[in-house]
Amino acid sequence: MTISLTTPAMLFPAVSLLLLAYTNRFVTLASLIRHFNPDHSNEAVQKQIDNLRKRIYLIRRMQEVGVISFFLCVVSMLALYWEYEQVGSYIFAASLGCLLYSLFLSVREINISCDALDVHIQTFYSKTPTNKK
């Protein structure tokens, strides 16, 4: 299969927007963590902190793999520019693989985020008095 110089360039907007979204997630989590009060530590807070640690780790990995994808995309364009079509195609495929892995990590992070919301909802159930008849 022959790809042109513009094929890897089509990924630039997508990867850039993904990196921006990942950065926004990271900033939001950092803000949440800064607002935790260590004096009010209980089991629910510990679960939330564990979830936040997992999410931060995943977001960092998502950002790293996204940047690697972006880098490989540029290298692919250089290879195609220098008329190394086969090499450029393989590097572009590696870039797509990194992008897919980054998206997979994003789905995992979303699942952990849902788990964190479940923990938060459970605290409401534990504080709500039960209706007894």
UniProtKB/TrEMBL annotation:
Keywords, alphabetical: Membrane, Transmembrane, Transmembrane helix
Record field: transmembrane: 12-33, 65-82, 88-107
InterPro entries for the chain: DUF2721 (IPR021279)
Highest taxon listed in the record's lineage: Bacteria
Name of this protein: DUF2721 domain-containing protein
Species assigned in the record: Maribrevibacterium harenarium
